[in-house]
Write a structure and sequence with these properties.
The structure holds 2 protein chains of 2 kinds. By secondary structure, chain A is an alpha+beta fold. Helix content of chain A is 55%, strand content 12%. Chain A has a 5-stranded antiparallel β-sheet with strand order 2-3-7-6-5, with no helix packed on it. In chain A, strands 1-8-4 form a 3-stranded antiparallel β-sheet, with no helix packed on it. Chain B has 14 helices and 2 strands. In chain B, strands 1-2 form a two-stranded antiparallel ribbon. The chains are: A alpha+beta, B mainly alpha.
């Protein structure tokens, strides 16, 4: 409707800008976490993530070489060296030798040491300590440096969170556990619901309308009601807390949605094909496997995405039906909750852990968005 | 055994058992019980067709009954009983009166009412705005995907994302939370600990759910907007209506049905949502909501009676929507 008379160009610009603002507002939170997951703990704690692209002024402590490296030159005891280890040489702004005055000197100035002698730090990080007497003690002189640190990003957080076998806060096991919950909890309901949806859509039997109404009603039953009675049941029949229980629970809770979506879709399939197959002597089972299932692919895909996202992101069902006191079967959402409790301030761990748990659903979401939208439209609005 | 192998094994077992049931039960029906050949072929086919729907439906009905229908009654029963060493004993409405006497419960109710008003309204509002605006521009589909994206993020993940936004550093040091940085930039006096501000912290928690649900509302409403016949819009423009009049007087009334559906869907989600409060404040600082209150009672205080009673309150609140849904479905089927 872009070119209808009456659409003013100034309004078009307002639309562009409003959409841009909206998109940025919706993206910023996630970007903040994403950027944070690549920063070091120091950087996160000292500056906002939105400043991470610019050089930062940072103060840190280095030590000059120990006194046993001193040499005698022309009657003077001298310690020389480079204050920075490694190749990085941030530009030094100010420096100092006491924690009470970390910015007392600019590069090139000479500082008097408390125990005698002088020290000079140059802009390139080289320093020279001089004394008429021998330098004592065993450790090098402390030097405080305030410098512009260029933006720096690292994969270390991801290494720590995902691969480090010594990290008890690691996400590797939780990741596998989440997969173990999610894959069967996605496939089993699809299979079960597809058969049921076919029966409700194309088979004739007494009570069909009543069953469909029941499914619609169960769509809105809050799963909170199910927690205690089912936990009791699981304990009584011996599955207790474990994968079987959590699969069954996810299957049950996803079932109304699955049947509703799939039935809505299957009802719309052309009657001729099914009737023809019946006349040709195909059994209902063959019709279902060979005709209905392939034709229903879009609906199956859209439910699969729903169920996948829902089970992957679930906390409550796993908390109640899966995770026991040993913590062996913890899922990622629960692991993050634990981290929020114990490592509430460690944003580098939290941000990375959260991103590890978000990344798979995001990939699925962007790859299969078309089906997700289709399913939502079939499920919510007729 | 390596957890990955164990995982794959259990997956194969679970899915295999499911496929096995359908395949073998149908095989049994067709080959052994009522084979469609021999002298009774016709009768057998009819009998098999009487049984087969139930064969197809059985697993679905079984889990529906066990995991959704039975718990409604079991929880109702639990809510009027007290757990003792010698089993559950009938106590009538004692759990309910105990619950109604608790300040925390009323706090949860008040907050929930606030959530029920604000979240669906804001999500639907933003969704409608986004749907209308993105429909008219060339990069609208990309914009839609990006606004829609939080739908894929777990409530827990979203809680972490927003906790970073609400983060507070002591006065004088650089703020790493976006909200405080903006607040100070625009002349705020001191950094605020947003999540502990009574009353207002509820809104900071709601922002998370609104952020997630707006994409959902946008997608559905955008489809509804596309379904509006163009003649009505053109006629209004020819008659001299400005864009705002076209939107509010022509378009919105035509998609009112869809708006109601979106609104109720989000309402149901609000009633069930527990992870956000659980992860961000755990109901402290007067942010309790019903779902988290229930979890607290059931699994922390181990008070199944009061926990079940509060679960029944949630059920009570969704019942009107349940009835309305069923009536709509029946109308459609006719």
């Amino acid at each position: 409707m872009n070119n209808i008379a009456g659409t003013k160009s100034s309004l078009v610009w307002a639309v562009h800008i409003s959409v841009a603002v909206l998109v940025i507002a919706w993206l910023l939170p996630t970007i903040g976490l994403f950027v944070s997951s690549f920063r070091t703990a120091d950087q996160i704690a000292t500056s906002g993530w939105w400043k991470s692209l610019f050089a930062q002024e940072q103060t840190f402590t280095q030590r000059a070489a120990a006194p046993d490296t001193q040499v005698q030159i022309d009657g003077l005891y001298v310690i020389e060296g480079q204050i920075f280890e490694g190749d990085e040489r941030p530009a030094i702004q100010t420096w100092g030798i006491s924690s009470r005055a970390v910015d007392a000197f600019v590069p090139g100035e000479v500082a008097e040491l408390r125990r005698g002698g002088t020290v000079t730090l140059n802009a390139d990080g080289t320093y020279r300590m001089e004394n008429t007497e021998e330098f004592g003690g065993s450790r090098g002189q402390r030097i405080f440096i305030t410098a512009e640190v260029p933006p720096e990003f690292t994969f270390d957080n991801y290494y720590t969170v995902v691969f480090d076998p010594n990290n008890i806060d690691g996400m590797a096991k939780a990741f596998i556990n989440t997969l173990t919950v999610t894959i069967p909890a996605t496939i089993i309901p699809i299979l079960v619901a597809a058969f049921a949806a076919y029966a409700l859509a194309w088979m004739d039997f007494p009570g069909r309308a009543l069953l469909i109404a029941a499914v619609v009603g169960l769509l809105v039953v809050p799963l909170q009601l199910a927690l205690i009675p089912l936990l009791k049941l699981h304990n009584d029949i011996g599955i207790g807390k474990g994968y079987i229980g959590v699969w069954l629970a996810h299957t049950g809770f996803g079932m109304p949605m699955a049947i509703y979506l799939l039935r809505n879709y299957m009802v719309g399939l052309p009657r001729d094909i099914i009737e023809n197959a019946r006349v040709d002597g195909a059994t209902e089972f063959q019709i279902f496997i060979k005709i209905i299932l392939p034709l229903s692919f879009p609906a199956l895909a859209s439910f699969a995405i729903f169920q996948f996202l829902w089970t992957w992101n679930d906390l409550l069902v796993s908390l109640v039906f899966l995770i026991d006191s040993t913590g062996e079967t913890t899922v990622m959402t629960k692991q993050i909750i634990e981290l929020l409790g114990t490592r509430g301030g460690n944003w580098e761990i939290l941000a990375t852990a959260a991103f590890v748990s978000i990344i798979v659903p995001l990939i699925v979401f962007f790859a299969m968005q078309k089906y997700l939208v289709r399913g939502m439209l079939a499920g919510s609005v007729k | 055994m390596h957890p990955a192998i164990l995982g794959i094994l259990t997956i194969a077992l679970g899915v295999g058992a499911c496929i096995g049931y359908f395949f073998l039960s149908n095989l049994f029906l067709d080959k052994v019980l009522f084979p469609p050949r021999g002298p009774n072929a016709g009768r057998n086919i009819n009998r098999a067709n009487l049984i087969r729907p139930w064969l197809f439906l059985f697993p679905a009905l079984f889990v529906l009954g066990l995991y959704l229908a039975y718990p409604v009654f079991a929880t109702l029963w639990l809510s009027v009983t007290e757990r003792t060493s010698s089993g559950n004993i009938w106590v009538g409405f004692e759990n309910y009166t105990q619950m109604l006497g608790e300040e925390k419960f009323w706090e949860a109710m008040r907050n929930n009412m606030l959530w029920l008003i604000v979240v669906p309204a804001a999500s639907t509002g933003f969704g409608l705005l986004a749907a209308q605006l993105t429909d008219r521009i060339s990069w609208g589909n990309i914009a839609k995907s990006l606004i829609f994206m939080p739908m894929a993020i777990s409530f827990v993940g979203a809680a972490v994302i927003w906790k970073l936004i609400y983060d507070t550093r002591p006065e004088g040091s650089d703020q790493i939370g976006l909200l405080n940085a903006i607040y100070l930039f625009f002349g705020g006096d001191a950094p605020q600990t947003w999540l502990t501000l009574p009353f207002w912290n509820n809104f900071f928690l709601m922002a998370v759910l609104i952020w997630i649900q707006t994409g959902f509302a946008m997608v559905i409403l955008s489809a509804a907007l596309r379904g509006i016949p163009e003649e009505t819009v053109e006629a209004a423009i020819v008659d001299g209506a400005n864009p705002f009049q076209v939107f509010f007087k022509i378009k919105v009334p035509q998609i009112m049905g869809t708006i109601v559906v979106v609104w109720t869907t989000i309402t149901i989600i609000v009633l069930k949502v527990f992870d956000i409060v659980f992860a961000m404040t755990n109901g402290q600082w007067e942010t309790q909501v019903l779902a988290n209150y229930m979890y607290d009672k059931m699994f922390r205080a181990n008070d199944w009676g009061v926990g079940s009673a509060s679960a029944m309150i949630i059920m009570l609140l969704v019942t009107p929507i349940l009835v309305w849904n069923i009536r709509n479905a029946r109308k459609e089927m006719r």
